[in-house]
Amino acid sequence: MAVHKFILDDTFDETLYTLIGIHCSLEDYRLAYLINQYLGITLTRKSSDLDFNKGQVSYSIYEWEDHNQLITWNLVSNICKTQELKIRNYSSLFDTQEKITKTFHLLPEHKTVNYFLKIESEFSFKKEKYILDSILKIPQVVTAYSIDSGQLKSKDNLIFK
């Protein structure tokens, strides 16, 4: 009896999505509201943030599932700042505590990006350009651009399930 062997390529690992980097100084909830207004979508905050390093680092995430077109939209913060107290022991009368702020990035290769808009669907160039133009119309957004997900080293951080 012949043995048949199926070899599955990495095609199932790669989901098709569009990734847009957004530079702005807005709070996450305000940006989500403005994107909802300009794109006509309904991003809402997920009940739990993205957690990394066993809960020490978390990123805010907003999601909208368009069931009509089978598209999932995610707006996620790229920057997480944490503070910790470090006690300095001097051989003097006063011991001091120092606050240290550490900054973590969801995608370290794009440290200047404040937020990412991930759209899980394959769009035509015209549709992607329309989305970018709509985001750029938001007065508080400095710039927004498409990011090639094939060039990302830490693309595993973009799996939100």
From TrEMBL:
Record-linked InterPro entries: IPExxxVDY_fam
Domain of life: Bacteria
Name of the protein in its database record: IPExxxVDY family protein
Biological source species: Algibacter mikhailovii
